[in-house]
Amino acid sequence: MRLYNNQRRVLVTGGAGFLGSHLCERLLARGHEVLCADNFFTGTRRNIEHLLGDPRFELMRHDVTLPLYVEVDQIYNLACPASPVHYQHDPVQTTKTSVHGAINMLGLAKRVHARILQASTSEVYGDPDVHPQPESYWGKVNPIGVRSCYDEGKRCAETLFFDYHRQHGVDIRVARIFNTYGPRMHPRDGRVVSNFIVQALRGDPITVYGDGLQTRSFCFVDDLVEGLLRFMEAEPGAPGPVNIGNPGEFTVRELAEEVIRLTGSTSRIAFAPLPSDDPMQRRPDVRLARSMFGWEPHIQLQEGLRKTIDYFDGLLSAGELPPAQRSARRSGVVPAASTGGATVHAPLDA
Ligand code: NAD
Ligand code: UDP
Ligand code: UDP
After folding, report:
1. 1-53 pLDDT tens trace
2. Which residues contact 138 (CB under 8 A, 6 or more apart)?
3. What is the pLDDT of residue 1?
4. Which of 149, 154, 209, 277 is the best mutation target for the ligand 3 pocket, counting ligand atoms within 8 Å of the beta carbon and taking the most?
5. pLDDT tens column, 264-277
6. Closest-CA residue to 131 (of 243, 248, 285, 240)
């Protein structure tokens, strides 16, 4: 199936999204052929338009809840909205994407004997009792809450991955990704880093949910993608699961203050209610990634924030930030915005 040397045909589902677009770019730079399959729910054509002229890149509008018959050597299964605003917009579809999507992509991997990597999440740990979170921790997840469509969907996908591995010998890799940020997050994505930067650049209030003392560990996208690539290529391989994230832990309030400082913004902090089931702490134990494939993050928060601020500043200068009062927020769910992409399930209003 290999083309020549180490060149491979690689399927990236969710390839027009934030992480997927960076991954497609890196795979092409390594000489692989890339098939990007995306339904443009939260991803945009703009994220990958600079790749469209490359003859080794192919873009396919496809929903992973439907079967897909292609011939590939590797699959990165990233298709799934990741922002709470977006995955809660159509929670039934979110579970279907994780579960039916996993079944279809695993069925495909089984048929063509492809190695398949699942973009799982730190959300499988829920609101953790164990801190930092090692892969051996089974998590504390509410099965019936507003985040469950995502958390339990991803947990079920992990189950399917391991059962296809045990039952059918599928070559799997399960990566548990912790909060990742960087250029190409959508300005109305709704996640904390993009919200705060957009708010700070516009001089709007910085919306801190709850008292802002909940923590997250933020990984810059370049580090994360390097981790996924190394995990996929690691020989001898192992299925994982493996945490990929930056162990630097910050409160949400510290993040707000850092964004205000780095942007030189006049924004003030405005407190808003904490969404239900919002985890109080998050920090990856990354010793396994280090020992299995020599990976650790290198880009610290300040440096990563500067690069991300530059990106959003560019959008602001180009008049491409959303109008005032319409940056993403949890209450009232302002769903995906997709400049350049087509609407599939969400009313896109970019
Ligand atoms: P994103 O929303 O930018 O990208 C998701 C992509 O999947 C989008 O392009 C979207 O259009 C596509 N998609 C959604 N449903 C689909 C479907 N049914 N069929 C085909 N395509 C579909 O989010 P992201 O941050 O790039 O996340 C990518 C993956 O990584 C997701 O699976 C997410 O759960 C996982 N992850 C991300 C983070 C993070 O902090 N960024 C953390 C943990 C896990
Ligand atoms: N599938 C797919 N592409 C393939 C092979 C399978 O999308 O190349 C899907 C198909 O929808 C199937 C699912 O993957 O239902 C699971 O496949 P599997 O072979 O495990 O099960 P079965 O075909 O028996 O349902
Ligand atoms: N958050 C916030 N203000 C925002 C967006 C998010 O205070 O405008 C908080 C949110 O309540 C959570 C943390 O920031 O505690 C991370 O939220 P995000 O949606 O980025 O990801 P999560 O880790 O919750 O999936």
Report:
1. 445 567 999 999 999 999 999 999 999 999 999 999 999 999 999 999 999 99
2. none
3. 47
4. 209
5. 999 999 999 999 99
6. 285
d(CA 306, CA 165): 41
Alpha carbon 321 to chain centroid, angstroms: 21
Taking CA 349 as the corner, what is the angle to CA 210 and CA 340, rounded to the nearest 5 degrees?
115
Q: Is the pLDDT of residue 349 over 50?
A: no
User: Across residues 136-144, what is the average pLDDT?
Assistant: 97
Cα four-point dihedral sign 247, 248, 251, 256: negative
For each of the domains in the chain, give its residue range(s) and CATH number, in order of start. 9-183+220-244 (3.40.50.720), 192-215+249-280+300-339 (3.90.25.10)
| Amino acid at site 116 | I
How many Å apart are CA 154 and CA 204, to the nearest integer?
A: 34
SS3 call for 12:
strand
Instruction: Name every protein residue with a CB atom under 6 angstroms from any ligand 1 atom.
Output: 13-14, 16-20, 38-43, 63-65, 78-82, 97, 101, 119, 121, 177, 179-180
How far apart are the C-alpha atoms of 85 and 194, rounded to whole Å? 13
Residue 107 in contact with ligand 2 by CB distance below 6 A: yes
CB atoms within 10 A of CB 53: 7
- Only one residue has tokens 């991300």, namely 308
For a pocket test of ligand 3, which of 192, 211, 217, 218 has the largest count of ligand atoms closer than 8 A to its C-beta?
192
234 CA distance to ligand 2 centroid (A)?
26
Cβ-Cβ contacts under 8 Å for 323 (sequence gap 6 or more) = none
